[in-house]
Amino acid sequence: MKPELPSPLVQIRPDWPGADALSILVKRDDLIHPVISGNKWRKLQPLLTSSNQHLAGIVSFGGGFSNHLHALGYVCAQQHIPFVAIVRGDYRDNPTPMLRDLSDWGASIRYVTKQEYRERSEPEYLHTLSTRYPGYKIIPEGGSQHEALAGIAALTEELPDNFDVMLSPVASGATLAGLSMSMKSHQQVIGVAVLKGEGYLESLVSSLLPRPNSAWTITHQYHHGGYARTSAPLLSFCRSFEEDTQIPVEPVYSGKLFFALKQMIGDGVFSAGQTIIALHTGGLQGKRK
Ligand SMILES: *Cc1c(COP(=O)(O)O)cnc(C)c1O
């Protein structure tokens, strides 16, 4: 399947307090591709367009619902690249839909303990992996290698110049880092933390940026208890948001993003007349049971 690009930019008019003073747009990266999740597709682009002929294969990491492993597994299958997925936890007895797809696409899945998974960016561990899988490219969790930033930055070429604030979910930080690099001087990008990571997420974003910039901030009030944690208000918000806008969301990333947007508008974070773009990063595959 060919990706749908540029992805649509649509206006929504929710009946939230304060929303009618703003122009609210949604960048529908969830529509880029039916299988590959929006920002994961963007992040993989620089990697995929550079030549893969010399690659013996690819190794990467993720949890049992990982949008990144899912996107990468699909792409590797399409391009006949051997793929090793290192998965946190043991799902052999009850694989998630995401893991079943990976197996169907011919990936070799290695289940590792939490302890081993924690070593995923340690030089020694990476060295062991490259000995075990010679000639393989090792891609970090979330697809957040340095090259990923260019793919994310390319997204902003599809946007009009006249917006003021962009909002994006943050987990491993590459999406926010890439966006911040391409903001104009009058623009800001606000990351909505989807996990408990005050300080930690900021250091991830900073470490990915080739040069520091002040176009980004992260808000930590909307993670609802942590990664993949939900709350009753979040779940009921997701349902009414889908009903009102006909835009599908899931509670791990996009649900928290739009929940935060509504609250921030209510709190008067934005000035009247501003144009806000919320980036729908996709991730709907993770919603499957
Ligand atoms: C991975 C992912 C994110 C987080 O992006 P990072 O670059 O890791 O911060 C956001 N939304 C969706 C749908 C994702 O799959």
Comma- or semicolon-separated keywords:
alpha/beta, about 35% helix, globular, 4-stranded parallel sheet, single chain, 2 domains, Rossmann fold, binds pyridoxal-5'-phosphate, 6-stranded mixed sheet, about 20% strand, about 290 residues
Could you characterize what this model shows?
Helix content is 34%, strand content 18%. It is built from ten helices and ten strands. The chain has helices spanning 38-49, 67-78, 97-104, 114-118, 123-132, 148-155, 174-181, 200-208, 232-245, 254-266; strands spanning 9-12, 23-28, 57-62, 83-88, 108-112, 136-139, 165-170, 188-193, 216-219, 275-280. α8 (200-208) links the parallel β8 and β9. α1 crosses α6. It is globular and about 55 Å long. The site of pyridoxal-5'-phosphate (PLP) has 19 residues, from α1, α2, β7 and α7.
- Kindly state the number of beta strands: 10
Mean pLDDT over all positions: 95
Sheet of most strands: 6 strands, mixed
Q: Quaternary arrangement of the chains shown?
A: single chain
The helix/strand order is EEHEHEHEHHEHEHEHEHHE
Q: What structural category arises from helix and sheet content?
A: alpha/beta
Stretches with pLDDT under 50, minimum 5 residues: none
Total helices: the number is 10
